[in-house]
Amino acid sequence: MTRFILKLAAFVLLQASIAVGVVISTVSTDNQHHYLAGALDKRQRLRQTAGGRIIFMGGSATAFGVVAAEVERLTGRPSYNQGLHAGLGIPYMLSEMETLAKPGDLLVLSPEYEFAITGDCRASVVARMIAIDPGSVKHLNRMAWKRLLDEGELNFLTSCARRIAPMLPAPGGKEFRTEQFYRREAFDDHGDCDPKRAHHQTLQRDDTPLPYPDRQTASAQLIHAFSRSMRERGAEVWLWPQPIERTAFSLNREQISRLARSWLEIEGVFLVNQPADEIYEASDCFDTAYHLTGEAALKRTRRFVQMFQQQSSQGALAPIAAGQGHSAVGR
Question: Which domains, from first to last, does the chain contain?
Answer without folding.
Answer: 2-177+188-313 (3.40.50.1110)
